[in-house]
Write a structure and sequence with these properties.
about 150 residues; mainly alpha; Four Helix Bundle (Hemerythrin (Met), subunit A); 4 helices
């Protein structure tokens, strides 16, 4: 079992983007990645499969939003989703062959990757979706955020 808190992905207001449907799926993403990071070795395949189901639905939803609304920078964003899913498939093959540590490394990389992905690519999509639905940018109130 991996208990390295340096790789834990913590849901907080810092990850809020102001588009509620996206924030909800992102909070679930954080939960799914953390379960994969901390599950017992004999359950790695189960939690990797859970991640894969979540990621297909999560990325599929965002890809659909981008396509349906003709979001201008969608190609790059959708390519990043596809790359994560491809990696998940490859990792699953290793895990099925008995290498559970590769799944832990994959989950740790997801924990490092996600905040930047959300901050740059998803935040632009959140603003696009919110503006289309409400005519302006979302307001995001963040509590207890440390400032440097």
């Amino acid at each position: 079992m991996n208990t390295d808190s340096d790789t834990e992905l913590v849901w907080s207001d810092a990850l809020l983007l102001g588009y509620e449907p996206m924030d909800e799926v992102h909070e679930e993403f954080v939960d799914v990645v953390n379960r994969l990071l901390s599950c017992p070795d004999d359950e790695v395949l189960k939690y990797l499969d859970e991640f894969f189901v979540h990621a297909e639905q999560h990325f599929g939803l965002e890809d659909r939003w981008m396509t349906e609304t003709e979001f201008p920078p969608r190609d790059c964003h959708m390519a990043e989703h596809a790359a994560v899913l491809k990696s998940a498939h490859e990792v699953r093959e290793y895990v099925a062959a008995g290498n559970t540590e590769v799944a832990r490394s994959f989950a740790a990389e997801l924990a490092r990757w996600f905040p930047g992905h959300a901050d740059y690519l998803d935040s632009a999509l959140a603003q696009w979706m919110f503006k289309r639905q409400h005519g302006g940018k979302p307001l995001v109130f963040r509590r207890n955020i440390a400032t440097a």
